[in-house]
Sequence to fold (626 residues):
Amino acid sequence: MRLTWFDTVIAEPLRAGVLPVPRPRARLGLAVAVALGLTIGGPVAMAAHESRASHGADVAFALQPGQPPNYIFPIVIPADALLANYGYFQDQMFRPLYWIGSGDRVVVNSRLSLANPPTFSNRGRTATIVLKHTMWSDGVPVTSRDITFWMNLVRVSKTNWDSYIPGHIPDNVVSVGAPSPSTVVITFKRAYNPQWLTFDQLNLIVPLPQQAWDRTAAGGPVGNFDRTAAGARAVYRFLTGQAAEEPSYDTNSLWQVVDGPYRLKRGDGFNAATGETILVPNAHYSGITNHAISQITLVPFTSDAAEYNALRSGTLTYGYVPLQDVDTIASVRRLGYRIVPWTSWSADFITPNFSNPVSGPLFRQLYVRQAIQHLVDQPTYLRDIYKGYGHPTYGPVPVSPPNLFAGASESRNLYPYSVAAAESLLRAHGWSVVGNGTDRCVHAGTGAGRCGPGVASGARMEFSMVYASGDLSLAQQMQAFKSALSLAGIQLSLTPSPYNTLFTVVLPCNPKTGLGCRWGMADWGYPSWTYTFGAYPSGDVLFATGALENLGAYSDRSADGLMNGVLVKPGYLPMREYASYLAAQLPVFWEPLPPYQISAISTRLRGAIPQSPLILVNPETWSMAK
Fold:
């Protein structure tokens, strides 16, 4: 069969200069594999693969510290845009229209998608989508009506949807037609790069069970309320209200109507206090499955130390070795685990708040951002804290898995670690630099040798940082960063906070309420962002003016123009131009990207390797060897 762009890989192994590791082993970044001499798998693991599989097996899957699932409705609000809510929780019950990822490749997976590849007409403005035969768990087919239902709800709730970017879906949609139960026709306002459209727009669509959810009150009748704006708002309010009732997730009949391979175990499938989640097979699932795993328990932890204790006790099927404990990997292997670093399709960074009334004027000065970036000692963090795992981040486009989008700017450090360079930048722009003290602006105003617009005379180089607690490696990096800043007279106060709590603090600034205006810098740990449902790494969801995930309120007309070019122009050059610009302009502070985790996977568990760079899992394809 001849392949089209729909089947081609965004991220694939480089064809020269890299010795690929044969499947089913996970690929490591070349530098890590060579430096550490790691071998993934081995005779014991392969022997397990040759054993016969057992059906009805249970899997205990470890969640990252402080990241339990806490939101079930697939139109996710920004405060709950957690990986755990997407890849491990919602995705198992409610599948997106197009599934991204096949093994360790970033590609639209035709086999696991709910629809056939889209066809384009009307000079590229119209996409026609033909659904596959898929069933809801109540026996009703998934139809085009479930897609128009999703679109109608998103239209009225877009400003509260984590994936919303002004001008993108649903704003860029002229019409959505459903000429048959299996066909959807979406016409856009303009022609787009078809790869971007599929990887970043059509794949955001999650069919919703209109026959069960199109109601405005518990116990109320199901209708076509969503077909008016007022009715759609009432339905959305009802569903988000139900989603706020976490203790009822496993008893509310709404959430039992699913089209994914799993559903919540009724009655005791969700512990709202801890986030522990039990998923059981959806008997009506229409996709590819071997029905070998009868129960998946998502196990939450408050710290990586607690998880590691559980791993060493043998209670986890799929866990991880904290980076500070990698010296003990040999003992974990002896317990019957494979050790597989999980490389993510990600960028890692510290987010500054450009809207903060005190520190925002400083962050808006490029020279200040450059000075701070010069004090991020990526090589030392990788060597001493992350034990050689991972790679530097120099820009917004991932360099791993190896791909053709990452240009030279992604592999060149424009701001290498240098206290002297940071001090020189500050002195040249009107600052009195006091190493191990606090720098002050002594030449306010604009023009050469001045501190810049908005920076008052006497302003002090002081910032605050809130970061995710529970991860020792991240805490060590934060302390090292603070120490480096102080050498150049930049003072940083650190506040650890539970991961979920960060999303109640680190918000886009609302001048009317003051919410989101006072935080200084934020770090969620690694990865800061994974290009999962926006798998095309165009960056607009993070850095476009007004994007809901642009939490620091970065705004740059040139950046917006370059990102827009990525959306409409096919090929690699627009992406490289955008990446090069943002690598230099520093909308965030780039920091090293370790693996998402050093996975420890039972040698009995088959089908879990290679791991998806999008941090997604497909347990419907797993099985357990006896």
Remarks:
- The first helix runs from residue 30 to 36.
- Residues 225 and 349 are 43 Å apart (CA to CA).
